[in-house]
Amino acid sequence: MDSPVAGGPIRLDVSTPVFEGPLELLLALVEREEVDIFKVSLARVTDAYLAELASREIPDPQEMAEFLWMAARLLLLKSMRLLPGESPTDEESELLGWEDEVRQRLEEYRAYKEIAGELLGRAQQESFAFPPPARPVEAGGQEAPLDVDVLVAAFNSVLARIPPRPLVVRGRTWTLQEKLEVITDRLRRGPIELVELILESHDRLEAVVTFVALLELIRRSVVRVRQKERFGPIHVELREAAP
Amino acid sequence: MSEVSAALEAILFSSNRPLKVHELQQATDSDRNSIEGALEKLREALDGRGVMLMRHHDEVHLATRPEYAGAVRRALRPEVSGRLSQAAYETLAIVAYQQPVARARIEEVRGVNCDSVLGNLELRDLITEVGRGSGPGQPKLYGTTMRFLQVMGLESLDHLPTPSEGAELISRTKG
Question: Which of A67, A98, A104, A234 could form a disulfide with A194 if both were Cys (CB 3.0 to 4.6 A apart)?
Answer without folding.
Answer: A234
